[in-house]
Amino acid sequence: MSRLKVEIAKAQAGMESADQRAAGAERLLEQGRAELQAERERHDVSLSQLHEQLAQLIARTSARRPATKAAPAAKRSPPKSAARS
Description:
Blueprint: H1 2-64, H2 80-84
């Protein structure tokens, strides 16, 4: 009977240890999720800032560029095969 009590005590200690490790793993998982969310938010902000900067750059470039008329197309010489006929 005492042998069974020892086995039960070992099993309970093993379960408690496993519970503690599981709780630690859950804390690490939650920390990882929080860090991932923070990184996603930081990336989203950076991307929107880049889009805004690009739009401003395009607007400035367009404002500085004078409107130009398309140059007339240069006359092409007929293909050599047409010239021989």
